[in-house]
């Protein structure tokens, strides 16, 4: 455990995005853990809570906690409102779950049970709990309603722009709307749909990604959306040099995610943490084996099994996760551990030490400033 | 066709690599075309000729031409000396070809013939010409001998470091040795093998690539090889903002390739050029369908067919190219054009205009300087 040092004494890092949100550093930190969100915002960046796994009631409690611990600093909430998923027209959340459960083929259930048995994972003793999560319109909309009752500064939407009425509602509350985009065409569409801030995310990122790298993507998106739209660079950013590169590519700030999985404050599962700390940048893979859409994960026996010849293939979102939801906690606590996987980007190769979140922020800024100083030496000759 | 403007009036861009080679800009340009190599070196960068496709006699003529047209500026040669390939122990080049030809399965030949017929490609009327190319030790070594008789400044080696005696020979001639690496471990091994300059190439690059992105790879390699080794950033670099990002990540210069396929001076096949100009960054794929090792190409009916259910799979290097060598010129001049593909990186999405090579160099520098100026505005506040 490192001692959390004082904030670095650096020159100001001032972009449109720090001015807009009144934050010190243009560093956005996506996390499912409220402690991380509050810690990053307190350290001068901006924490963004991923709402995906929470019921509206739970989300209310999380945000109340953040409000009490964020010291008045701004923070955001991230919801998932995919434009396309199985069951968009199948009624409310409860109805939807019932209908989709019935659509999961027996072959898939059998493949999963065999896989779990092979790896010594304990049998299921209780019925699967929440399986739909917040990645349908039906389940994300109540999250938005809760979020907008709190003093959030940003509502971000993964997997496409939020529906027009949701963007409008956010704007009525004085809340900026962010959208993740993995190509320039989608970025333009999001701006047309009312998104204020494009989070351009390269293929090296953890979680849902496209296939274009951050290096190629950022200038394309910056040029595509025009000067009036703020762009954050995401994917492969976990060190100050990468932050400098993201801004050099034309972004106004950086959006980070993976690096907060290994901070002191994180609630990363006990069996996943050592794997994350040990992994190299080559140990990830884009796979549909978790959500049904391509997302980057640790490469494990889990991702390999779903790609193997025996695999029945992937189910569409949200059915793939519904199928595996009950297995994940069992994998986390029993069996040989080989199936334990986790969404993470290629930056995992640099995540070798557990540090306080504030320290990660300060380290980013210190290396960023060193990088800029070096560039000036190079360019001035 | 643009008018080739005067060199940009910019502040100096001075790094260890410009000092070492006495060049104006830390921009390396890989090309199989001598005209491009000479043009980039004359414009203040450093052209590097890919020797792969040339016999020793042809290479002699190409280098003689460059010597006469490069205006005394430094240039380099790139050879391919893979550490692992089929037939490394099968005697000299002629013997090797005979033996490997006999090892190509009939199933693969039949799959190829069917594919060509489906796309209306004319039947073969002459026996395949050169099929082995310079990607074996047996065929690359004579290229090295020729190259070292010319005033080259750099001998680069793709697919792993050159054998120790080759590196030593280059050093005896006062020639620096470069090695392409796609991960930090390989980079370290190359330095141990006598490589002076590591070209760290991300997955977004054209041609043979690994799977780690440039954004993640460069800091890893810079830290792994230590302060005494020069690192060039490669993969996804075709604009000034990307050059700035590459240097921000810690590199001493940038290595570019794809962007020289669409310059005035390039000899890119007539049917491939419009495809390159029209492609977006999403239109490439890593495939073994050309050389047997994963390399990035335009995504076409060719790359898709080899991934389809009917595909017999790929042959190991150099047999896959031996199989297809005779088909490539036929595809280039006949049939429906859908099989026409080409090695290129994701930067292809930014290659939308044919320009003189010198103009590409100057545009890179101008945008680079703009990017550095913007970073300074941001950081000084």
Can you describe what's shown?
Chains A, B: It comes from Actinomadura napierensis. Chains A, B: Keywords: Flavoprotein, FMN, Monooxygenase, Oxidoreductase. Chains A, B: Pfam families: NMO. Chains A, B: One of its GO terms (molecular function) is monooxygenase activity. Chains A, B: This is Nitronate monooxygenase family protein. 2 copies of one chain form a homodimer. With 381 residues, chain A is of the alpha/beta class. Chain A folds into 2 domains: 16-85 and 135-260 and 358-380, TIM Barrel; 93-131 and 269-333, no CATH class. Helices cover 40% and strands 13% of the residues of chain A. Chain A is built from 15 helices and 11 strands. Chain A has helices at residues 16-21, 34-42, 56-69, 93-103, 106-118, 137-147, 164-172, 184-192, 214-225, 240-248, 273-278, 301-307, 319-324, 327-333, 357-380; strands at 27-31, 46-50, 76-80, 154-158, 176-181, 197-201, 207-208, 230-234, 253-256, 284-287, 295-298. In chain A, the strands form 2 sheets. An 8-stranded parallel β-barrel of chain A has the order 1-2-3-4-5-6-8-9, surrounded by 6 helices. A 3-stranded antiparallel beta sheet of chain A has the order 7-11-10, with no helix packed on it. In chain A, helix 2 (34-42) runs parallel beside helix 3 (56-69) and helix 3 (56-69) packs parallel to helix 6 (137-147). The model of chain A has no long low-confidence stretch (mean pLDDT 92). Chains A and B meet through helix 9, helix 10 and helix 15 of A and helix 9, helix 10 and helix 15 of B.
């Amino acid at each position: 455990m490192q001692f959390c040092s004082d904030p670095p004494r650096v020159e100001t890092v001032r972009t449109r995005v720090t001015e807009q949100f009144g934050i010190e550093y243009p560093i956005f930190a996506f996390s499912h853990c409220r402690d991380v969100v509050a810690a990053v915002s307190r350290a001068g960046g901006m924490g963004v809570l991923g709402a995906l796994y929470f019921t509206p009631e739970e989300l209310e409690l999380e945000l109340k906690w953040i409000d009490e611990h964020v010291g008045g600093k701004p923070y955001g909430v991230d919801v998932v409102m995919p434009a396309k998923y199985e069951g968009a027209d199948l009624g409310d959340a409860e109805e939807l779950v019932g209908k989709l459960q019935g659509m999961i083929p027996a072959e898939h259930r059998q493949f999963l049970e065999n896989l779990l048995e092979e790896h010594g994972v304990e049998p299921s003793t209780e019925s699967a709990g929440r399986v739909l999560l917040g990645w349908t319109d039906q389940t994300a909309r109540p999250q938005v309603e809760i979020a907008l009752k709190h003093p959030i500064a940003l509502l971000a939407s993964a997997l496409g722009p939020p529906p027009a009425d949701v963007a409008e509602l956010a704007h009525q509350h004085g809340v900026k709307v962010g959208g993740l985009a993995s190509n320039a065409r989608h970025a333009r569409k999001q701006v047309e749909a009312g998104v204020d801030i494009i989070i351009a995310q390269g293929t090296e990122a953890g979680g849902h990604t496209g296939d274009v790298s951050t290096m190629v993507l950022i200038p394309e998106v910056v040029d595509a959306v025009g000067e009036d739209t703020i762009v954050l660079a995401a994917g492969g950013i976990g060190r100050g040099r990468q932050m400098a590169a993201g801004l050099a590519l034309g972004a106004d700030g950086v959006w980070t995610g993976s690096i907060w999985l290994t901070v002191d404050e994180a609630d990363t599962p006990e069996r996943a943490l050592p794997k994350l700390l040990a992994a190299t940048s080559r140990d990830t893979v884009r796979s549909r084996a978790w959500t049904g859409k391509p997302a980057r994960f640790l490469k494990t026996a889990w991702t390999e099994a779903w790609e193997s010849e025996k695999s029945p293939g992937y189910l569409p979102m949200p059915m793939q996760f519904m199928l595996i939801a009950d297995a994940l906690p069992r994998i986390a606590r029993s069996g040989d551990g080989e199936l334990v996987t986790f969404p993470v980007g290629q930056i995992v190769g640099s995540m070798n030490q557990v540090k306080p979140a504030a320290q990660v922020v300060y380290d980013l800024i210190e290396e960023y400033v060193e990088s800029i100083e070096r560039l000036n030496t190079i360019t001035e000759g």
